[in-house]
Amino acid sequence: MVLYPANLNLQGRHCVVIGGGKVAARKVGDLLECGARVRVIAPGLDEAFRGLEGFQHEARGYGAGDLAGAFLAIAATDDETVNSAVTREAAELGVLLNVVDQPERCAFQVPSRVRRGDLLITVSTGGALPALSRHIRERLEQEFPAEWGPVLEMLKSARAGVISRVGDEEQKRQCLAGLAGLDLVGAMRRGGEAAVKSEIDKCISRF
């Protein structure tokens, strides 16, 4: 299986999660973080759902037609009959579907990931060995610490300034490449945002 990599914009999209266990709660949390409109269909909800807000819960089992209008669906149940029915409906309606722990039924897989603000790094083994994905993710978490979040916000602002002020396309390219090569995480640790801004300003001033 060769997977096509893509990052989905779920802001305001209707997403359905079938199941109310711990795994379903984690999936719902991820969807809510991305701004999705989430409907959960499950007779009951695990305590892991406590603290999650902004989703709709229908306290019942899955029924035909529950994926109507959905952009994306996740089946997080251990009921083979339900998973099969959800898979068929998703195929009929053209809904992107992930069936937890059953990659052969998935239209997409959810990779291990490291998120630092707008920085998103994903790792996948195509379902061959999820434990390896987690191991690589843990290494990436060390390599890309929390400081990357605010640093990237400052770089985003700097990029907008460069694009608006630097007219020559080659100079613009060189300036942005220079910004990308700065050790801004180190600067953040040494002197906070003021040090990061100083490094950015010095780089841009050369152009």
Give a structural overview:
The protein is α/β, with parallel strands linked by helices and 207 residues long. The chain has three domains: 14-110, Rossmann fold (3-Layer(aba) Sandwich); 111-144, Double Stranded RNA Binding Domain (2-Layer Sandwich); 148-205. It is 44% helix and 15% strand. It is built from six helices and seven strands. The chain has helices spanning 22-33, 80-93, 130-143, 148-165, 169-180, 184-205; strands at 14-18, 37-41, 56-58, 72-75, 96-99, 112-116, 119-123. The chain has a five-stranded parallel sheet, sandwiched between helices. The chain has a two-stranded antiparallel ribbon with strand order 6-7. Helix 4 (148-165) packs antiparallel against helix 5 and helix 4 packs parallel to helix 6 (184-205). It is elongated.
In short:
The chain is α/β, with parallel strands linked by helices. It has helices at about 20-35, 80-95, 130-145, 150-165, 170-180, 185-205, and strands spanning about 15-20, 35-40, 55-60, 70-75, 95-100, 110-115, 120-125. The protein folds into 3 domains: about 15-110, 3-Layer(aba) Sandwich (Rossmann fold), CATH 3.40.50.720; about 110-145, Double Stranded RNA Binding Domain (2-Layer Sandwich); about 150-205.
